Amino acid sequence: MRTTTGWQSLDPTSNALTRVTFERRDPRSDDIAVRIDYCGVCHSDLHRIHGMLGEKDLVPGHEATGVVVAVGQAVTGFAVGDRVAIGTIIDSCGECAMCEAGQENYCYSRPTTTYGGTDRIDGTPTKGAYSREYVLREKFAFHLPDALDPAAAAPLLCAGVSVWEPLRAAGVGPGSRVAVAGLGGLGHIAVKLAAALGAEVTVLSRSTAKEQDARSLGASGLLVTADEAQVAAARGRFDFILDTISADHELSPLIGMLGLDGTLCVLGNPLLAGPKLWELGAGRKKLTSSGTAGLRQTVEMLEFCAEHGITADVETLPSSEIETALDRLAAGDVHYRFVLDMSDLDK
Q: Around 272, how many Cα atoms within 13 Å sit in the side-chain half-sphere?
């Protein structure tokens, strides 16, 4: 076994995590061991350490970058010293229709998540990338392109792929009229990606406070959803709306802004109640959602981001300041994603 250090949630009522030492498995034949240099702080980390899924004693973290430090004897795709990225899933059955379609994130036997999951071989709980080292199958690790800064690229492995896959599934490209509802950790990356794909992008927000940010990220403008006149004037305006808002909100105004055969993809709050079906029927509109991405789409996204110079807008903190990061994330005080520098775990 290998020993590493990380941050574990031992009190579900608190954002304070405890520095702990724990064991990782020695690399199996198809495993690589990765020194984690940076790990993004996802809003789902905050929810899960507080027991949203009934879990406890989690070592969170599922958007990380680092360097390979050891490889199993059968590994052919990575070598010691390679830059690597780790996302939200680290294994799947590999046999079901979803896995065969390259959608391992929808594995019928449930994918093994980077933390809070169960190893498919030895049954041990998976512990995440708020740690200095991680061990996983090479199939579920990704080469980090040299053009991408490792800290700013870390959130691409969750927030980035979560918006990339629905954008691609909707066929977004030149001529597409896209709206992004909410300009936060997910939304700001969605604007960058949609604009780079050639779409005309509008940000939907409750006020004009983020209009300058929206334009700097690539949007052509901002529509104030609290302004009933602006919402009414936007009826039928968009082909695709990506809803990244995490708070409870009504979907009807967004559906009204869709044109014929338009699609609303709800990402930020999957627990929202659905609309009346007649709202979708008036224009053959579609309501959908998505969950991270499969391996092929993740590779495609990383290559696209490297080609177009796209990363997250991040604030990097020493990993010892994780409580501060979680407190500020809960308060909405982040612009736009926190990333932890894990090097202080060497001290």
A: 22
Give 161's contacts (C-beta < 8 A, 6+ positions apart): 87, 88, 292, 293, 297, 298, 301
User: Dmax over Cα atoms in the chain, in whole Å?
Assistant: 64
Strands of 221-224's sheet in order across: 221-224, 200-205, 177-181, 238-243, 258-266, 286-288
pLDDT (tens digit per residue) in 24-38: 999 999 999 999 999
Measured between its terminal Cα atoms, the distance across the chain in Å is 21
User: What is the C-alpha separation between 56 and 43, in angstroms, rounded?
Assistant: 17
Domains along the chain with CATH numbers: 2-158+313-346 (3.90.180.10), 160-288 (3.40.50.720)
Let me know if 12 is exposed, middle or buried by CB neighbors in 10 A (0-12, 13-18, 19+). Answer: middle
Give yes or no for a contact between 212 and 195, defined as CB atoms under 8 angstroms apart.
Answer: no
Please identify which residue in the block is written with the tokens 């809960």.
Answer: 330
CA-closest candidate to residue 221, choices 263, 183, 267: 183
- The β-bridge partners of 315 are 338
Please tell me the predicted confidence (pLDDT) of residue 72: 98
Task: State both tokens at 224.
Answer: 């104030």
Segment 239-260, tens digit of pLDDT? 999 999 988 999 999 999 999 9
- Own/partner long-range contacts of 22-28 (Cβ < 8 Å, ≥24 apart): 22/59, 22/127, 22/131, 24/127, 24/133, 24/134, 24/135, 25/1, 25/122, 25/124, 25/135, 26/1, 26/2, 26/135, 27/70, 27/71, 27/72, 27/75, 27/135, 28/72, 28/121, 28/137
